[in-house]
């Protein structure tokens, strides 16, 4: 008898011996062989079928663990966590402490509180462990297995090396509890720091007679070295989207913005906006619109990168990719918008004359939300600029470690 295929029989014997015994006696009286119950053709009376059927809900859920610094959160981080969640039922994320980041990589851009808000706000994350170690030691691995009931440790196919050059996941691999996912190409925190440095370092922005920003030709050329390598596809957008439409009587809340360098302030304001209705629709301004109203050095992340970051947020139901600056009555009618909201903390606009919310205000559906945090894209960029030298050293250190790793890997494989 195949135990796996007939485990419901043995469960029935264990939990309901009197019922099962009665069935066996009945079978004997009918002249049926008891071996008949080992086959797949057993048809029990309806009142008993639920007794022996093994319930899927009783099966222990697979818990997977993925750690990281998640500093300067971007869609690559979100995609990694999406892939990790697909390898199990529950995703537990380990958030490396500020002290560990400083010791192993250099100063973090975002604080633990800000990084926690970003990671917790992702739709694929079920639980977060704060102050996780940078290296998964055997001691911490045992803690994951026994205290947090983790089945597998997940990491990308890019190297994660300790200062001494050793693999940070060696213990998990040795224990046979390691699984690998594919790294998202086209973006990294190092790349984003480079974009910010190139875009905002000594911008030399001058004002012409009309009071508009002009960017020197040299700066425009230098910025090309850090153009995004991300190639958007419809498949990636579908992977990030829930694909759920609002119900017939749903209260649809609309909020718009650039959502550049997606940060904790964005997460918190989106959470508050979602609490005002049943469906949160987010408008994401085009690159041209952001540059026109925020300045030529913005956005840091382009439209599709920003769209994926917003879609990854658990409070967002749908996005408009390339939404208009001004909200029209036709737009409100088309999307059946019940409320238009805006936070009290936002980037300054170069165009202070026109009000993009004039129509929803006249309709009485505009609401100004108190922003929980005062962080902005500019303030994040300024942190990096203020620590220019430290971040340059951090990036160079990481690049050198990865270069050595790949060279050694190539040597060992004999390529």
TrEMBL record:
Region listing for Disordered, in residue ranges: 200-228
GO molecular function terms attached to this record: ethanolamine-phosphate cytidylyltransferase activity
SUPFAM superfamilies noted in UniProt: Nucleotidylyl transferase
Catalysis: reaction(s): phosphoethanolamine + CTP + H(+) = CDP-ethanolamine + diphosphate
Enzyme Commission (EC) number: 2.7.7.14
Gene3D superfamilies for this protein: HUPs
Bias (Polar residues): 218-228
Protein's UniProt name: Ethanolamine-phosphate cytidylyltransferase
Enzyme kind, highest EC tier: transferase
């Amino acid at each position: 008898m195949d135990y796996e295929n007939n485990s419901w029989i043995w469960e029935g014997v264990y939990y309901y011996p009197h019922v099962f015994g009665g069935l066996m006696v009945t079978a004997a009286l009918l002249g049926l062989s008891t071996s008949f119950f080992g086959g797949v053709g057993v048809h029990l009376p309806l009142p008993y079928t639920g007794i022996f059927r093994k319930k899927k809900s009783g099966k222990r859920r697979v818990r997977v663990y993925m750690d990281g610094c998640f500093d300067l959160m971007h869609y690559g981080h979100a995609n990694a966590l999406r892939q990790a969640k697909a390898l199990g039922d529950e995703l537990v994320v380990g958030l490396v402490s500020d002290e560990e980041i400083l010791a192993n990589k250099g100063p973090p851009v975002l604080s633990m509180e800000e990084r926690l808000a970003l990671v917790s706000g992702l739709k694929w994350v079920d639980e977060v462990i704060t102050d996780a170690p940078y290296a998964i030691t055997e001691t911490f691995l045992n803690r994951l297995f026994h205290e947090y009931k983790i089945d597998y440790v997940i990491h990308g196919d890019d190297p994660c090396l300790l200062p001494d050059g050793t693999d940070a996941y060696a213990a998990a691999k040795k224990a046979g509890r390691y699984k690998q996912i594919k790294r998202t190409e086209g973006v990294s925190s190092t790349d984003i720091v480079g974009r910010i440095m190139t875009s905002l370092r000594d911008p030399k922005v001058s004002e012409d007679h009309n009071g508009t920003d002009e960017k020197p030709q040299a700066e425009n050329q230098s910025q090309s070295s850090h153009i995004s390598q991300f190639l958007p596809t419809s498949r990636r957008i579908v992977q990030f989207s829930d694909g759920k439409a609002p119900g017939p009587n749903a209260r649809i809340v609309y909020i718009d913005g650039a959502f550049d360098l997606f940060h904790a302030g964005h997460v918190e304001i989106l959470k508050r906006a979602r609490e005002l209705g049943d469906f949160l629709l987010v408008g994401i301004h085009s690159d041209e619109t952001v540059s026109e109203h925020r300045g030529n050095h913005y956005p840091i992340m382009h439209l599709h990168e920003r769209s994926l970051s917003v879609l990854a947020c658990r409070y967002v139901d749908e996005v408009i990719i390339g939404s208009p600056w001004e909200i029209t009555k036709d737009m409100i009618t088309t999307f059946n918008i019940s409320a238009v909201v805006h936070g009290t903390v936002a980037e300054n606009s170069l165009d202070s004359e026109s009000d993009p919310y004039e129509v929803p205000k006249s309709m009485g559906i505009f609401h100004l939300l108190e922003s929980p945090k005062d962080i902005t894209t500019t303030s994040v960029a300024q942190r990096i600029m203020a620590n220019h030298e430290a971040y340059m050293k951090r990036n160079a250190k990481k690049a050198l470690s990865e270069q050595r790793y790949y060279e050694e890997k190539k040597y060992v494989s004999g390529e």
